[in-house]
Amino acid sequence: MSLNFSFLADGEELMLPVPPLPFGWGVAQNVREVTVNGTGTVYLPGDPAAFSGPLEALLPAREYPFNAPGAVLDPYYYIQKLSKWVTGKKIVRYVVPGVVNERVVIEEISYEERDGTGDVYAKIYLKASPPLEAVTTESSAGTDSGGRSEPETDQGLQTYTVVTGDCLSVICRRFYGNGTAKYYNALAAYNGIKNPHLIHPGTVLTIPPKAQLGVS
Questions:
Q1: Residues 6 or more apart from 2 whose CB is under 8 A from it?
Q2: Domain residue spans in the chain?
Q3: Which of 63, 66, 115, 145 is most buried as measured by Cβ atoms within 10 A of its Cβ?
Q4: Architecture of domain 6-128 in CATH?
Q5: Is 8 exposed, middle or buried (0-12, 13-18, 19+ CB in 10 A)?
Q6: Are residues 152 and 160 in contact, defined by beta-carbon separation less than 8 angstroms?
């Protein structure tokens, strides 16, 4: 199965023209080192740390059988878009459907032409940028959690106004305690959203009870 790699910022989606394989992502923490008399050095869990890693991407100047559908055959189209987000200090949503859905900053981009084809080889350095707001649990849905949510009817419908940095998986985790694909795809379908990975600040979502969402 082919994977799509997208960056979302300012209400715009930029999908890389060729999957940057191999690729990966992860989590990190600041491990604490403690010296205990008679035991020696002990390592203890610490606060979460921002994970970082590079993507190595081919930006083709011509048609290849492995190009993603709709690929723009101008490598500098992608370089200019990404560079604009770097210089604009934008927080970006990095999405590989079903695999990664993270808020990140693009720390650096480097790129070069190598073989006279016009193709560009780019390295995109990403660093996780989790929200600074406190984590909100399902039981606190309807309180101030960055966006706005208000009870809608006696049947349990609520509304939520999307704010910058939101994504449907985080919103589902907030209201249903589960941010997996079946939840955010169901919420997208309920609200008539065609691309569940692209929502815009100011959009008002209807949040139905789990029973009405149609997931089990």
A1: 19, 68
A2: 6-128, 138-213
A3: 145
A4: Beta Barrel (2.40)
A5: buried
A6: no
> CA–CA distance from 69 to each of 4, 58, 89, 118, 121 (Å)?
10, 15, 29, 20, 19
Enter the tokens of residue 192: 């008539």
Identity at 146, one-letter amino acid code: G
Residues 72/17, Cβ–Cβ less than 8 Å? yes
Phi-psi region of 118 (alpha: psi -120 to 50; beta: other; left: phi over 0): left
CA distance 142 to 186: 20
Burial (CB < 10 A; 0-12, 13-18, 19+), residue 110, is: exposed
Query: Closest Cα partner for 23 from 58, 75, 72, 66?
Result: 58
Please report, as a single letter, which amino acid is at residue 180: T
Residues 63, 69, 73, 78, Cα dihedral to 10°? -140
Q: Write the CATH number of the domain with boundaries 138-213.
A: 3.10.350.10
- 3 state SS of 186: helix
Q: The tokens of 19 are what?
A: 């999957």
Dihedrals phi, psi of 207, to nearest 5 degrees: -110, 100
| Strand 12-15 versus strand 148-151 pairing type | unpaired
